Amino acid sequence: MDSYLTNLEKSGQNSKLSHLKHLLYDLQSAVYSSKGGTKVYGDQPTAIFADINSINSLNSIVSSKSDIEIVTIKISNAADLNKSIDLNSFSGFEKLQYIFIISKVETSPSVINNLIKNDTSKYVLLYKISIGG
Question: CA-based diameter of the chain, in Å?
Answer without folding.
Answer: 42
